[in-house]
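Anyone have tokens for Fas apoptotic inhibitory molecule 1? Sequence:
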Amino acid sequence: LEKMTDLVAVWEVALSDGVHKIEFEHGTTSGKRVVYVDGKEEIRREWMFKLVGKETFTVGATKTKAAINIDAVGGFAYEYTLEINGKSLKKYLENRLKTTNTWILNLGGTDYRIVLEKDTMDVWCNGQKMETAGEFVEDGTETHFTVADHSCCIKAVSSGKRKEGIIHTLIVDNREIPEAVE
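Reply: yep, here.
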């Protein structure tokens, strides 16, 4: 495996199916551009005469759209920005905090990352979309699923405050799991 000598940027992006590492090589003398997602080469272009531009690709099981913008910032200096779903990484992550909940827990010595997509109520665990059963209960809804023979439930209850909206709580084996901050 050739050494990444022209590595200019590395990003970690938390999506529903996991945290993905995006690496970008830019050879400013050769015009080479290489994009790696989770260590796998996605794009390779040799001898690009235009050193600025954009490379588009997808990330993860959900085939999330991503793009790396290459801009000149004077002389032979370049700036690299990552966009996810057409938004800057910062904007995308801020929006994601509003649209998802993430919990990290350990069951029987194995780490699990559980993500709830609030808009679709899809539940992901370690990169797999889970089979769920939803039910209405007295104070809201419950979404039931199983992780490693442990019964899990995400309770959705109104906060009673318009600004806060709905509070989602993960309960595993009758224990509340604190939400993770990614």
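The longest strand covers residues 7-15.
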